[in-house]
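This part of the workshop introduces the protein records we will be handling. To make this concrete, we reproduce a full record directly below.
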Amino acid sequence: MEIREDQITHGIRERVATIVGSRGPIPLAAWSPAEGRGSQLILVGHGASGSKMEGYVVALARSLVRTHGCCVVAIDGPVHGERRSDGHTGSTLPFLEFAQRWSADESLTDDMVSDWRETLDAVLAAEWVDNDAEVGYWGLSMGTILGLPFVAAEPRVRAAVLGLMGAAGPTRERLVSDAASVTVPVLFLVQYDDELVAREDAITLFGLLGSSDKTMIMSPGAHGAVTAESFRRSAEFLADRLSQVVSGSY
């Protein structure tokens, strides 16, 4: 791993790094306590048109560090952020290019699962978290499209926040199949007025999750109008469930 930036601000250490992945560079950002290691590791998958440094990702990460002492790691998704060769930072082009690749690239999901696994390996090897730290995943929209299969495939992930996605789209069959393999505690967020994801499809995907501990929060508003309350509750959910893993409740 090559660490390109490393700074401490208001008690939070922020790193920007690149992992040498098996398929090429994996751009990464990480937040952790200024001193010592994170008590838990939370992996964050951003939505389409965003990046690892999207405003809500940074805000969520800092909140998790301050409130729960976590280490939080985000990586750029396909055709987003530093993975773009053209340096384009707007939201429309990455969104459209992702939609195109989602429809045409059958390896897209497996490639991202591999990237997340290699990221997890690298972060644990870097000793940014306690040796016994439990791992959680947080990802909405594209973060669920590509993150749900990762949670299903990776036994080191012990709790997840998913949502803003349903049993629909080009990889519907994959999402439906993998949902049954997600057996860890899940908090699932749905926007009642979502213009991109039909609420019926979202409810269907929630129902297919194999976890016996799963909770849905449905809030009014459009796709991108997730409330501050939902963000707070999602952070608390991960911290709580991962703590219960440590205590032996799960």
Remarks:
- The chain has eight helices and nine strands.
- The chain has one domain: 2-247.
